[in-house]
Each structure stands twice: as structure tokens, then as C-alpha cells.
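Sample intake sheet
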Amino acid sequence: MRTHLYRDGGSVVVADVDATAADGSELVEAARFTPPGSDLGRFSFAAFPDLSRLVCASPDSVVCVDASGVVVWEHDLGVRRTEGLARTSVAVPADGTVVWVYAADALAGRGESDRWLVLAPATGDLLAQKALDCEGHDADHLHHPDGGLLLSVGMGQDGTAVFHGRYDDGTLSVTDLSADGVWDTIPCAISPDGNLMVSTAQSCQDNGKVHRFPDGDVIATLTLETLYPGGDPEELVVEYGCAGFLDQQTLIVTVVDENWDEENPGAPSEIRRVLVDLTTGERIGHLPPDQAGNDPDDFRPLGDGTWLAACDGRTRRHRSSAFFNLSV
């Protein structure tokens, strides 16, 4: 079962993506949890596959709660000696056999570098850990079809460090994909077959890149000129972290015109979900506006020809056989 997590007040809702019809239907709620603490914006969350428990990661600890909100276990990450914006990231694989944790130890003042930890799902005990050659403030886990995970660590102006990890037979193996130099983009999706990755620029926001896996080599750069020919590059941005695979051959990249209504500066930005044919590198259209959502960031291509898009705070699943031509 594929899931989608979102916050609803003081609760974390787990939606069942596969039980949701791809006809614009709202996501089907499968479970609801009440995490400890009140500032949920500082937490990272991951649900176990059977939806019996939720893992909540704060800057200081990782806590597992059951459906009634009772704490099952807690793993202390150590004393935080700074007030920096260090965030912890957590992930649970589809088989639920371990819990992955990224700890921003350097920024938190707990060490000279960050850590990637593997915890026991029943107790929270430490099974393995690796020191990472980076000093980040936050990270994202991406599940890879090979059973491993991709970890992208944001380091602000210093770029992005990217790692691939596997935990097999009690051994944690980590490959540094940025060993030859930090990336200037952040990975945000993996292709259905696991052979490609897409990343978007964090600072200048003027391009997206397609990479081979596992070497990380760039095989295509998607510029604003490619994605939105004729548009004003001074007003357009490739939305950070908002790209993904509609299917194995088709990529969706979000382009935002931040100044599209100069007479109404309070109006929302115009959002285009641009489709790119990976076999040619050419744009082939964009999603219908009523299926593209009105939140640039709350958008998730699912790799099976469907996608999730939020409109007015409600996330829906869509599928379309006809796309709009991209006219500018």
C-alpha cells in the first residue's frame, strides 16, 4: 500500500493512495495519529506499513507512538548544544523491518559531522550508524526500488550531499554519490525502474537535472528556456523540490510565474506542471489547470501515470490521457 502523510491540526493523517480513485477524488484516510508535542512543523514523520504506529522525529529524539498516542519507544539523539535550525529526517521502508534516521549533529552541536542511523522497529534500539561527510540542516529520504534509500542533505549555500544506503544482514553500507563534489541541485524523485533521478536547483531555481543512478552523472539539464520557451527568466522559477516521474518515460517539472498578475500583486502565482518526454528531452505539454493544484509544493507524481495535487487544502489523485499544449 502506498501512503501519503499530511498534517491536520494536531494530528498526522495517513492516506491510502491505492484506495483512492484517480478521478479527482480526495485521498482516502486510512489512519490518524496524535504525535507528542505541539510544534509539528519541526517534526518529520513516517508510518509503519501496517499503519499500527507512527515514527516522529524531532531535532532531539525519535519517538514511536501507536494509534492511541501512547509512546512505544523513544531514541535519544543526544544533547543539542545550539539553537540552530537542525532538523531530523526519518523513513520506514515498505517492509517495516527498520527505521532510518538522519541526524543533523554538526548543526546541533553534537559532533563534527552528521549521522545516518538504523533503528530496530520494535524497540528503537540502535542497529547501525554511519558518520556522513557533511554538515547539513535538513535531509530527505527517497525510497529506491532496490530496497535501499537515497538521502539528500541540504547544506544551504554549500550545496547538497547525496548518499545511497542499504541495510542487509545486519550491515549498513553507504555510498557517497557526491564524493566528487557537492551537488548544486537536490534530488526529489527516482524513476519507477530506479535507473534515473531528477533534481531541482535550490538557490537560483533556474533548472532541473536528470541523473543516472547509481553514479549520479547528469544526462540532461532542463532549463527554463526548455520548459517555458518565450517566458521571462526574470519572472519564472523552477519550483524547488517539485518534480517527479509521471511514468518511466515522462517527467513533470513545476514552473512558477511569480509576477503573472502585476495589477494584482496579492494574487497567487501562476503554476505550470510541465511534461517532458525523457526519450527526447522535449516538453510535450502541461497538466490541465484544474488538475494541477494551486499549491506549488504540494504535488506528487506517482510513477504510474497518476499524481497527487492539492487545491484549497485538499489533496486529490488524478489521471489524464489528454494534456494541454504549452503555449506562452
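Comment: The two ends are 39 Å apart (CA to CA). The longest helix spans residues 105-108.
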